Amino acid sequence: MSTRTEGAVAEPEAGTVELSYREAINAALADELASDPTTLLMGEDVATAGGVFKTNEGLSDTFGTDRIRNTPICENGFMGVALGMAVTGLRPIVEIMFSDFLPTAADAIVNELPKFRFMSGGQCEVPVTVRAIGGGTGRFGTQHSATGESWYMGLPGLKVATAGTPGSAYSVLRAAIRSNDPVIFFEHKGLYGRKGPVVRGDGGISPLGDAAVLREGSDVTIVATLLMLDRALAAAEQLAGDGIDAEVVELRWLRPFDVDSVQASLAKTKRLLIAEEQVHVAGWGASLISELTLRGWRWDNAPHVVSLPDHLLIPYSPSLEDALIPSAERIAAEARAAVGK
Amino acid sequence: MSGDRRLTWYRQMVEIRLFEDKVQELFMQGRIEGTTHLCQGQEAVSVGAVSALRDDDYLTITYRGHGHALARGMSMTAAFGELMGLTSGCCRGVGGSMHLTDFSRGLIGAFAIVGAGLPVAVGAAMSSKLRGSDAAALTFFGDGATNIGTFHEALNMASVWKAPVVFVIENNLYGEYSPVRDTTPVDDLADRAKAHGMPGVVVDGQDIGAVHQAVSEALARGRAGDGPTLIEAKTYRYRGHSRTDPAKYRKPGELEQWRERDPITLLGAELAAAGLLDEAAQKALHDEVQQQVDDAADEAAQAPVITLEEVEDYVYAH
Questions:
Q1: pLDDT of residue A185
Q2: Among A23, A75, A250, A334, the one annotated catalytic
């Protein structure tokens, strides 16, 4: 494969650095592209201007346009191309500009990627990573604001990941790219400017499938992903001022689904609050409650949920969008209700 | 064209024909379940095109893919075993009739979703190009697939990227139960190549030499870096769309008319005229292949069924 990697990438800084969520994505991509010559990034405008959200800035200069490859606007088609590349020796990373465009590639995502290895009787591996950029707060309107995180979590053969902090963006994305199975990795476009600590280098790659306790506490467990995770951490700060000690669990992987970590946290706090930027029906929050119940978890305190309303869609009007997407204050208020204070 | 090559083609076409006839028989006996899509009548397209490939080239095929797989060298036992759902199958019985796959032969996928194999072939071709190989990819699909989005998406990408891929339409005149003229506004499907900036070639799908030559030229063009080619092979399927389809939508006399241009009969006449294989030798060859088919089916049937525990390993590679 023709590359121009030699000497082009500075040695990744090892150790903890302060990066924005956008820079963390860029660093994860750069580090994987540098470490494995079979990786490549493809999608709409991924090379031109570094992607519409600038996550890929500089990558085409460093790795060349063979490996940072613009595609025509045809998600189902280029997802199939990625599959063909993956089963013949490459490790493609596919960027989906808005999560809302994922259903355009639904055949590839539902019927091809997760089933290909299985139907062949284990003859191949399908190392495709799909980066889907989703979520609200951007004033993008009804067709450009979905997180999409739960749409594909019911598909055996696929893995589904999310990231709500710069640190998890780096560590989870690198783990996703290293997986030999297809992974959809969800990013949130409302987080790109958010800064935080990132453990850069191979030591920063988190174990695939694990949830992470980002703040320890004993009064209530808040489980969240993406922007809601960021807001749950802010809510926990507010709650601390009220003498409520919240534990915040980031559900970084929706498939595999780390119920153990949530259950361990619940054993301590006895109270669950789910914060999700999606309707509650048929999402990971509902599945989490179901899984815990099936395990025989005794709900001495009924679980609480903060989510998008089941009867509405995201409107363009900025004030209405803000009113619908759960804020840190709403999460904190629901946590107080869960704790009974 | 060497006489030897045509003799090989003849035998391969007879193998595919008698394999498919046997599949039909096994269905009637309940020894194969589910559905199947047979390709009697289309053998010259499978064998003519696949014989133009190199061993390191890639191939994606469709649910009507028994002929493609056998042409690529899959053993009849592996094919029968797959249709029977047994571990003797190429996918250990997990895939079934619509998913005859064999990575050891570059047969990287058989698709039960119309049009889904085209972008995958483009991906394999691009992968080959990016890895510095001159291996090409060929993808078979039916006339019906030329109306689905992935057809246009795949041709467009392949053309923009000059991917070494050959798109082969097997135009058997029917997309499932519907005549192509009812669903498609052009007479020659190869005309659609023009919209995607590549050559479109119409070829007589009953003439194996013509198919072979068209595909060979397209592969050479792809390997030379000149991009993809769309080839339309005009052919006919003798059976209905799938097992339960009696094909009552055919015009009277249509089947009989196509049988007059049966690809095996045509090549057989050519070989007889050339003094390479007379009628008696052809009859002997048919008998020999019939025995081979029957033996392969019996051998495949001896294998056990895979366990659910083993199947679990195929969901994730980890």
A1: 98
A2: A75
Q: Record the tokens describing residue A312, joined without a space.
A: 């509405």
Q: Which of A89, A120, A126 sits opposite B131 (nearest CB)?
A: A89
β-pairing verdict for A183-188 and A129-134: parallel
CB-based contacts of A125, cutoff 8 Å, min separation 6: A86, A87, A117, A180, A181, B317
- CB–CB contact A124 B93 (8 Å): no
Q: How far is B75 from chain A (nearest CA, A)?
A: 16
Give Cα separations from A340 to A329, B138, B201 (angstroms).
Answer: 16, 66, 75
The whole-angstrom separation of Cα A176 and Cα A189 is: 19
Name residue, tokens 């290293």.
A178
Query: Coil, helix or strand for B80?
Result: helix
Does ipTM surpass 0.90 in this model? yes
Please report the sign of the dihedral spanned by the C-alpha atoms of residue A97, residue A102, residue A103, residue A105: positive
For B14-30, the pLDDT digits (tens) are 999 999 999 999 999 99
Looking at beta carbons, which residues of chain B come within 8 Å of A120?
91, 94-95, 99, 101, 103, 109, 314
Q: What's phi and psi for B39, nearest 5 deg?
A: -125, 20
Query: Does residue B95 surpass a pLDDT of 60?
Result: yes
pTM over 0.80: yes
Say yes or no to pLDDT of A90 above 80.
yes
